[in-house]
Amino acid sequence: MGAGHDHHHGVAYAAERHRGRLWAAFGLLGALMLVEAGTAYATGSLALLSDAGHMFTDVLGIGMALAAITATRRAAADPQRTFGLYRLEVLAALGNALLLSGVAVYVLLEAVRRFGNPPEVTTGPMLAVAVLGLLANLAAFGLLRGGAQESINLRGAYLEVLGDLLGSVGVIAAAALIWATDWWWADPLVAVAIGVFILPRTWRLGRAAVRILVQAAPEHLQVTAVHDRLAAVPGVVEVHDLHVWTLTSGMEVASAHLTMAPDAEVGAVLTAARTALHEDFHIEHATLQVEPGTSPGNCGPTAW
Asked: Each residue of 95-106: b (16+ CB within 10 Å) or e?
């Protein structure tokens, strides 16, 4: 006997709740990206090119987030997609991490090449566009901040905007330094600083996405603690075949087999077990199979 608790429609999809803000950030950053890229080409600024490259990944990442929202909504009506398309959010976050890593590595390599013979940079347009980029990133930062803790996809876009925001500050500093002192090394140095700052955060985002894709247990949950809590439910004498994983951001899922005492009542055991998972671990979606204690192991061997 088993029981499940449908969580998909009970809790709003985090990225969906912030859809309007995503569209606003997408339009704002898209426009500034084109301005920055054109100005970087005209002025020869590697730091500004780095900032434009990071902004491109912001725009692409937010676009993928919006596409994932649309696809997830359409999949809800498909009976063959029993878990919807929630994992598209995670795939989009992983794509963001890979793209941003590629841009950062390119800028680092180009900066190393420029240290030998730093080219002259036109500082006036570079400074003006960097200030515009800073204002745009501040606006996008405010738009995405609210959803960054709820959705791994929004967290990816948020981290990229944070990197761009700091990058814009660096470009402004480099432009001012070059203008005041003609120290041309400031441009590649700022480009390197931007890359070094963003890479570790990008790798952490990628690692979080991979953990979800391989269905590892959430880092903030101890599977042994979940096991022991279920075993402590009145009427449960043994717990086995326990699995805990993350479907998408903020949506933990569990399944387990519970061996019951001979005099236990199925409904009471299931209710108590669901309540324990909800209150102690915030697991809303659980599929629990109960088995009579007189037939241990009657579910058969499992290879996973």
From this structure: bbbebbbebbee
